[in-house]
């Protein structure tokens, strides 16, 4: 079994401080924006909407979010086994959920800690486990694009700017899941840069391993798990709006939630902070939802999805780190 020093695999302190500083700045901006909107519409109305939610309703929102993470964790397990990793279900769930602790890093690159745990526990180098991360990200992009396209077609009225987002998400998913296409793009990038030959060679090797996932039943099940997971969070947003007296219909609510999540992700900001909230408030306002409802609804759904996931990750992360170090010996 290959060993890997935890000190070598951990990011430099300067990078960690930079990531946390960026996160802190974004949180301040998001908080200031939501606070400004709330104060502009009246604190009494905003807080009244949040206080009107019952404990069982919040629990229902969290349960739907948890089902999303568990279903996507099951997809991670499916893909890991297809790649050839001899890891168990609970082991893979531990890696997947623990990785959410790093969702607040720019571009969510901190979630690559999952590959570090896999290297410690299985001896697989990063370039061999990298296709698993690519397929997980591509799977999310694909199902979210499909859900967005479906919800727009079924909702009363469309969403401005949704079609380009759908196209971009599907294009990224296609590139990330086509070994030859991805390898060709890596080669073109190498020629343009003209340096880092070893790094690009490893990237091409990882791209070729994507062929392991070219299995119809595996892809069908992976798409089904991802679709069910993301739909659960879309439904939770719909329920939240209904409970706040702003029922805009199931498919319009799902479309707004998925669009805002994708739009926030395209900014590259940690967890889509700023972009997702702004898109959600703006789209709800276009549907005639007053700010005293759209602002608290946005705050609540982000707390019960993004921040709930981070909370789960922070609880699981120490266990995943400890068990990976134990396996490493």
TrEMBL record:
Alphabetical list of InterPro entries matching this protein: L-PG_synthase/AglD
Keywords annotated in UniProt: Cell membrane, Membrane, Transmembrane, Transmembrane helix
Ranges that cross the membrane: 54-71, 141-174, 219-241, 253-273, 293-317
Localization terms from the record: Cell membrane
Membrane topology: Multi-pass membrane protein
Annotated signal sequence range: none
Protein name: Flippase-like domain-containing protein
Lineage of origin: Bacteria, Pseudomonadati, Pseudomonadota, Alphaproteobacteria, Rhodobacterales
